[in-house]
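Example record

The entry below shows one chain as it appears in the dataset: sequence first, then structure tokens.
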Amino acid sequence: MESVGVGDLVQAAGHAGPWTVLEVRHGMALLEHADSHRLSRRTTSLTVVRKAEPGSAAAAASESAGDDGDSPTLFD
């Protein structure tokens, strides 16, 4: 199984997709659809459609937001 990472496009079972992974923590992924809806799902229930490119803007933005601790997420 391919691991899920920030910036990846994934398919969540039972939900029209693909979804962009915004954050991964404790086996859960925060996902965002193109229409701005968000949901969280276990990473084991996701199928990777396309891996994020190394150094992508989505991955960099999420990592920097996670570092400063000021940005609330659904996990907070």
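Notes for this example: The helical segments are 57-68. The chain has a mean pLDDT of 80.
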